[in-house]
Amino acid sequence: MTATATAAISVRGVEKSYKDVAVLRGVDFEVEKGTIFALLGSNGAGKTTMVRILSTLLRADAGTAAVQGHDVAAEPLRVRESISLTGQFAAVDEILTGRENLMLVAKLRHLPHPGNVADELLATFRLTDAGGRKAGTYSGGMRRRLDIAMSLVGHPEVIYLDEPTTGLDPEARIEVWEVVKRLADSGTTVLLTTQYLDEAEQLADRIAILHQGRIIANGTLADLKALLPPATVEYVEKQPTLEEIFLTLIGPSDSVVERAERDETKGHAA
Q1: Are residues 193 and 39 in contact, defined by beta-carbon separation less than 8 angstroms?
Q2: Could you tell me if residue 146 is inside a domain?
């Protein structure tokens, strides 16, 4: 496979084994700049291993991989300058406030005016009212939004989201989906690993299915649907899904708890 000029990520023939267990068996794919690419697979399919290789945290046994034109093995520092990684579990410091978490990352990246950087990201991720509270008091969705915000300090060109909605409730998952869509709209390239079919269907421009260490399908949602026989058109009365029922019953995403937390924050500020 030849890398195209629009590829933010290019992976060719990547292999990786742990002792006698072959995890990746010749993986090939490309991710175009400014798009959302979903790497879909069940637990143990090799998704996280692939992300670790692309993050320069793990060396492949064979094959090549490049990010923004930089080889992950030969130019690891250049790759790290271009990327950010959000793992399966939020990496926020629960003792620090949301704003302090963001300022800490900005200082580590040697950015000027870390307070301004933090305030901008808090506003972008609808966390301004909670910015002065300790992150340990945040709900799961708020914590994940803060985690992604921390990943965006310094405006990385490529962001890896490894199972970003694991353990989140349906409402929080939709909040994260909205964040991911905004990232792509702003020009950020997103590599998303997930085992949730609906997540890939909602978010991805292209989807690759990783199974037993190999990519067995790669294309748009329409491409993948075309792999199956044409659907038979039948009249079926549509019933609401459990997720639709849940979200209808609980109302808008601005939950009672978050409103109460915001009111408390404003009271302390006053």
Answers
A1: yes
A2: yes
